[in-house]
Amino acid sequence: MIPYMSLTIHYITADWTRHSKCLETRYVPDDHTADTLGENLKSALADWGLDEHKLVCITTGNGANIVAAIRNLGWPWLNCFGHNLHLAVSHGLDSDKDGTARAIGLCKSLVNTFSLSWIKRRELRKAQSEAISSNTV
After folding, report:
1. Distance between CA atoms of 71 and 34, rounded to whole angstroms?
2. Across the chain, what does the average pLDDT equal?
3. Does residue 38 belong to any structural domain of this protein?
């Protein structure tokens, strides 16, 4: 793994157009402690001429080190919905590993059946066409 951190800004223009820009991906070889991350975040904002007092909110994952860094900086923080959703789905799938593994295996088998056989794909298209024609879908 390569130790890095990225800084992306999101903003809305006067005509309510939403924009996102990745300003930088910074190599951070030092341990990713709260102090190290905080210094790099503060430095990145300064490098881009952004005033931290105009910062509305910073969104990150839930790692203790980054949460502590933001808290130490005194910046308004919001945890990442996408990260939390990923965690919830992962934990939900982990609770029934046998059932999940079987379902994923069946899906892979189904995909492979139609990916590897032009005859099966032809039969599937024919069956789908017939079902649509007879309105049984």
Report:
1. 9
2. 89
3. yes
Average pLDDT over residues 32-47: 95
Residue whose C-alpha is closest to residue 80's, from 65, 64, 60: 60
Q: How many helices (H) and strands (E) does the chain have?
A: 5, 4
Q: Examine the domain organization and report whether 12 and 72 are in the same domain.
A: yes
- Do both 8 and 38 map to the same domain? yes
Report residue 10: phi and psi, to 5°. Answer: -125, 135
CB atoms within 10 A of CB 17: 8
Helix (H, G, I), strand (E, B) or coil at 76: coil
Residues 75 and 16 in one domain: yes
Tell me which residue range forms the domain holding 111: 97-133
Q: Is residue 27 located within the same domain as residue 65?
A: yes
Q: How far apart are CA 12 and CA 62, in angstroms?
A: 25
Token pair for 46? 């300064």
Average pLDDT over residues 18-46: 94
Structural domain count, the chain: 2
- Spatial separation of the C-alpha atoms in residues 33 and 65, rounded to whole Å: 6
Task: Please indicate, yes or no, whether residues 70 and 117 belong to a single structural domain of this protein.
Answer: no
Residue 107 — very low, low, confident or very high, per pLDDT cuts 50/70/90? Answer: confident
